[in-house]
Amino acid sequence: MNHHPQTIDPAADPSLVHGVDTHSAIPSTSDPSEILIARFTSYTKLIKSLSSYFSHAESLQKHQSKEYEKLAKHIEVPSSSQGGQFIEGSTGQGLGGIFANLQHAAVSQSAAHADLSKSISASILHTLDRLEHDVKAKIKDLKGDGSKGFKSVTKARNETEKHIELLGKHTATFGTSSKGDVKSDPYLVHRGVQHLLAKQTEEENAQMSAMIQLQNECAQLERRITQVVQEVVGSYATYAIHAQQTTTKILTDASQKANLVPADAEWNAFTARERSLVDPRAPARDWKALTFPNMEHEATKPLAAGYLQRKGKLIKSYNDPAYYTLSPSLFLHEFKSDNPHTDPDPVMSLYVPECTVGGYRDAEGKFVVGGKEKKMLSRGHEYKFKAANPGEGEKWWTALVQASGGGKGGGMTPASTFGSESEPTSPVNESMSGYGTDVEGVQQGVQNMNMGHGYGSEPNPYAPQSGKYGTAGDDLR
Question: Does the pTM exceed 0.85?
Answer without folding.
Answer: no
